[in-house]
């Protein structure tokens, strides 16, 4: 594979010192970043290396979507303005019963196209037919954490668990460099204790991570307290879920004690501000989580409840939402941007990801900053958090490979993908 030399770029490193390098160069070596620094000190390109002149562009680590249900692009706009349980039980689950592997494959490719256009290079997915999502990941070139989903409140729950175990075994045997397997017990209200404990045991057996939904709504917490005397987070701690590296989506109604538990156990949180707002779920105590030292990433959740997969928009939402209570410093621009990059990687327990630094994975987005809404120049972090949008992303690199350049896809036939998803949607919603 030819190495890449990105030259004349403004590089937002996303380290803890908020380093920004002007007139910089980024050089890859295969799947990793080899050099980041002043252009004058950069190694010269070899004859077969690819050179990208990024004058006027800003480089950031590829954005991380720490919680999504990618194939729910099929549900985009199909059921708006409803609370979570009504939305799930009346609008989502009845249609999901008819979704095929093929539907998931094309809807996942659509989601990947949408995310690449928005500078997203890693996503953390939880959806049915995970093998179809994996195909979309392999073919497109993007990076993903893929959860083998389990729910326990259906007649074929045991079969689902066996299927999830087989899928995790297959992922481990394959050892794909861009796929990280997770177990995905959906939530405490869909996975009873005995099954949750089985999943924890399997996760230990195979050494894989966990991805689940906890404390998304006040109603969920109340019914958990009524049934067990504990919050969902305390209950999962009692079931020893957090003895594996875990990513918790939402945590909207996490108590102070819950936050202490999450911090103590090293649990990552995927904060989904748009989805929480849209479903009326509430405002997650993100400033308290950050103060407790929890790795908080940003997720779009599925396109059924967002309705986009645009992580840059979640950066803005997160930075704004937590100010609503009256503290304009609650989540600053740099903090929100870290949540979409370095912290997102930490929330998924992925190493060498989310920063532009030697030895890190070469997942990079270049944004065209020569735009009216990004002028005057400089002020890069502010512009990224508050003014830039997905349409500013020009070039996307994952694992050292250019997947989009000048907004043109290298690996995806977008018109074919759109046509196939329209066919699926016509059938499912007819
Ligand atoms: Zn979700």
Summarize the structure.
With 430 residues, the chain is α/β, with parallel strands linked by helices. It has 15 helices and 17 strands.
What does this structure look like?
The chain is α/β, with parallel strands linked by helices and 430 residues long. The protein folds into 2 domains: 4-61 and 362-409, Roll (Urease, subunit C, domain 1), CATH 2.30.40; 63-347, Metal-dependent hydrolases (TIM Barrel). The protein contains 15 helices and 17 strands. It has helices at residues 84-96, 101-117, 130-140, 157-174, 193-206, 218-228, 232-238, 256-265, 273-278, 286-291, 311-321, 333-339, 342-347, 380-387, 414-428, and strands at residues 4-12, 20-29, 32-38, 50-53, 57-61, 63-68, 120-126, 143-150, 179-185, 209-214, 246-250, 268-271, 296-298, 364-368, 393-398, 401-405, 408-409. Strands 1, 2, 3, 4, 5, 14, 15, 16 and 17 form a 9-stranded mixed beta sheet that branches. Strands 6-7-8-9-10-11-12-13 form an 8-stranded parallel beta sheet. Helix 2 packs across helix 3 (130-140). Zinc ion binds at residues 67, 69, 213, 249, 301.
Q: Top keywords for this entry?
A:
globular; 15 helices; alpha/beta; 430 residues; eight-stranded parallel β-sheet; nine-stranded mixed β-sheet; 2 domains
Please, what is the CATH homologous superfamily of the largest domain? Metal-dependent hydrolases
The small molecules bound here are: zinc ion
Radius of gyration: 21 Å
Strand content: 15-25%
């Amino acid at each position: 594979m030819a190495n890449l030399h990105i030259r004349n770029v403004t590089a937002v490193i996303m380290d803890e010192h908020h380093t920004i390098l002007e007139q910089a160069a980024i050089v890859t070596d295969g799947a990793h970043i080899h050099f980041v620094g002043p252009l004058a000190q950069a190694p010269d390109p070899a004859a077969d290396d690819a050179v990208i002149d990024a004058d006027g562009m800003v480089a950031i680590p590829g954005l991380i979507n720490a919680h999504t249900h990618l194939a729910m692009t099929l549900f985009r706009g199909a059921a708006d303005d409803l609370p979570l349980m009504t939305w799930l039980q009346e609008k989502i689950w009845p249609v999901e019963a008819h979704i095929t592997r093929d539907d998931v494959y094309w809807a996942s490719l659509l989601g990947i196209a949408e995310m690449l256009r928005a500078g997203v290079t890693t996503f953390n997915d939880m959806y049915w037919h995970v093998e179809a999502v994996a195909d979309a990941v392999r073919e497109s070139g993007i990076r993903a954490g893929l959860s083998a989903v389990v729910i326990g409140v259906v007649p074929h729950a045991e079969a689902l668990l066996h299927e999830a175990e087989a899928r995790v075994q297959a992922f481990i045997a394959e050892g794909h460099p861009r796929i990280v397997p997770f177990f995905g017990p959906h939530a405490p209200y869909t996975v009873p204790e005995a099954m949750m404990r089985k999943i924890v045991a399997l996760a230990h057996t195979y050494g894989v991570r966990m991805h689940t939904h906890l404390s998304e709504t006040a109603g969920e917490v109340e019914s958990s307290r009524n049934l067990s005397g504990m919050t969902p987070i305390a209950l999962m701690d009692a079931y020893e879920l957090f003895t594996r590296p875990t990513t918790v989506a939402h945590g909207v109604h996490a108590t102070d004690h819950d936050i202490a538990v999450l911090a103590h156990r090293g649990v990552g949180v995927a904060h989904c501000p748009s989805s929480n707002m849209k479903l009326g779920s509430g405002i997650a105590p993100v400033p308290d989580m950050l103060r407790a030292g929890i790795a908080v990433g940003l997720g779009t959740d599925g396109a059924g409840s967002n309705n986009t997969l645009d992580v840059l928009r979640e950066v803005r939402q997160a930075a704004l939402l937590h100010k609503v209570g009256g503290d304009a410093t609650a989540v600053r621009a740099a903090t929100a941007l870290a949540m979409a990059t370095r912290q997102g990687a930490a929330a998924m327990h992925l190493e060498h990801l989310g920063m532009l630094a030697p030895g890190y994975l070469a997942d990079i987005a270049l944004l065209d900053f020569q735009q009216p809404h990004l002028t005057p120049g400089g002020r890069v972090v502010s512009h990224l958090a508050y003014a830039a949008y997905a349409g500013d992303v020009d070039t996307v690199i994952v694992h050292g490979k250019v997947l989009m350049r000048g907004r043109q896809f290298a690996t995806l036939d977008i018109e074919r993908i759109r046509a196939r998803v329209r066919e699926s949607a016509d059938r499912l919603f007819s």
